[in-house]
Amino acid sequence: GDSVTQTEGLVTLTEGLPVMLNCTYQTAYSTFLFWYVQHLNEAPKLLLKSSTDNKRTEHQGFHATLHKSSSSFHLQKSSAQLSDSALYYCAPMPNYNVLYFGSGTKLTVEP
Amino acid sequence: DPKIIQKPKYLVAVTGSEKILICEQYLGHNAMYWYRQSAKKPLEFMFSYSYQKLMDNQTASSRFQPQSSKKNHLDLQITALKPDDSATYFCASSTREWPSAETLYFGSGTRLTVL
Hints:
Low-confidence stretches of chain B: none
Number of strands of chain B: 11
Number of helices of chain A: 0
CATH superfamily of chain A: Immunoglobulins
Mean pLDDT of chain B: 90
Oligomer: heterodimer
Radius of gyration of chain B: 14 Å
């Protein structure tokens, strides 16, 4: 939705290169930030979440740091793997009610 | 074993007909949701329920009606189906414990095709 902006469309990387998927959000939606991942023909599932400013959050080799000063929550990984190919959603939660997903970024990792 | 069961997995319907998408969760969660995913729009929030009460509705059309007969059930009735309704419909749930960052757990989805 309009509350979040992600890296547009499709990102294609070669295996072993670093991953960075951008996510910026509207300040009003900064209570919690999430990254969800959806592999082909599967349901979305949580990858990372954070509510603490300037604290790095890590899971399954991915990490992100919430920066409220710049309204950003970029997703990073030092070395892409073929299995990282998926659709990635950044999602802010403005209150304890609804999770709004961004447009999604499709990551394709090639050999 | 899947903890959120959606039925059917695939559904084909004709324009103008009515269908019900089933969702049951066995995670002990108090909040349930419906999201829709299509080629035109990625994961789009539709409804949220908490303790069987409607909390939020972002679906413009009244053709979409959630139904919660039990705390762990949230079905989705769709009437007067249109080809544009073709999408994968995901049911999700969360703990709804205040305050917490509510992680959503998704079902495997029902892929609806309207001819």
